[in-house]
Hints:
The first copy, chain A, is α+β, with helices and mostly antiparallel strands. Chain A has helices at about 20-25, 40-45, 60-70, 75-80, 130-140, 195-210, and strands spanning about 5-10, 35-40, 50-55, 85-90, 95-100, 105, 120, 145-155, 165-170, 175, 195, 215-220, 225.
Amino acid sequence: MSEVRILPVAGLPEIAAGDDLGSMVAERVELEAGDVVVVTSKIVSKAEGCAIELADVTPSAFAEAWASTWDKDPRVVEVVLQQSRRVVRQAGPVLITETHHGFVCANSGVDQSSSGAHERILTLPGDPDASARRIRAALRALGHQVAVVVTDTFGRPWREGQTDIAIGVAGIHPLRSYIGEVDPHGHEFRVQEICVADELAAAGELVKGNTSRVPVAVIRGFEYEPDEDATIAPVLRDASRDLFR
Amino acid sequence: MSEVRILPVAGLPEIAAGDDLGSMVAERVELEAGDVVVVTSKIVSKAEGCAIELADVTPSAFAEAWASTWDKDPRVVEVVLQQSRRVVRQAGPVLITETHHGFVCANSGVDQSSSGAHERILTLPGDPDASARRIRAALRALGHQVAVVVTDTFGRPWREGQTDIAIGVAGIHPLRSYIGEVDPHGHEFRVQEICVADELAAAGELVKGNTSRVPVAVIRGFEYEPDEDATIAPVLRDASRDLFR
């Protein structure tokens, strides 16, 4: 193993719908073959126009009632519910949902901050793997052979503090398997699969931060398994195997 | 934000009880002030002699019965139960416990691989914060002002693949708070706290790997909040706030 570097990509302007993120990144960092470009989903949502005007939202009676109980905006609650396929936990003011993509997170990943106006909220990209593929294709068209990971900041059970995780990938298999490998003593490893996509997302957050306006990181020197058909699907545990859904 | 580097610490020998990990690390990497030394708990357990001879274990009737149902070693099951204060989920062959430290993980973090003999298993360090403090003190005695994170590889709900997380810290506050900060539009951040200790653990795994015999990584260039009295306690969500316990 050799050194891995995490490079912040600074200087990106406020992202608007239609922006070509790949080109904008390539202009601001000298990419090398094998780099992993880690992109915060918020700017992907902005580039893809995943904004909802609250004035256009009509809350359901269910959303109205719960929002009233917990002093929330019923239109935001409505969007959260529409972005979900199932409520996983609804306890006090907390709403944990399973999104249409299959991510389990607070408020379906809907973001009311930094969306440019109080009356507008951002949703997660509709297909973050497709988003990652588009960014990767734009970079490839400029001559850069890289992988792309689209990230979001999620909470988790049992532990305080959120971490960045992967919600979409392109060009990199998200898992590293140790199945069938043995240690020097001939034992199988306790670890069977490592979610390298999530570890890359977490590493990227160390230089991105949430206030620093650095929504992209480049990770250099990490040897990953290339996968032209990669998606985040192998990371999403099937409900039949899940003890906490 | 500037670049963050993740350096593997190679060349460590097999660790034995009583080994001084701090000195062994310092001999193999040029440490700089402000580095974060990320240490896999397995070598901490070995250095601290956290090994249990299975020949010395007498399984309870409960451990015997469940082990028999799922073709497990009843002595290992007994150790897993003894290392826990509560069973969180027991479903099929899966046993998710809350350890005496308060970590929720599979099999109380007990490791039957790489422990030097099939008839011996390794448990997590009894007090990983104290372990981190000891390593940090040894490094400080050699003139190195660093922080230390002790890690283990845990699974998580909803997502396949494990990731490295922090189980002990020294000299670094494990959380980065955004509470009360506002974005350029005056909104509070959706993110309230980031668990930087877990992100550092995940980043370290990118160069450590689980087969590569690189149990230590050094992370350089990350600006953390120094905390002489740091512990992992703020990361452990209180059961009263937890929807998945």
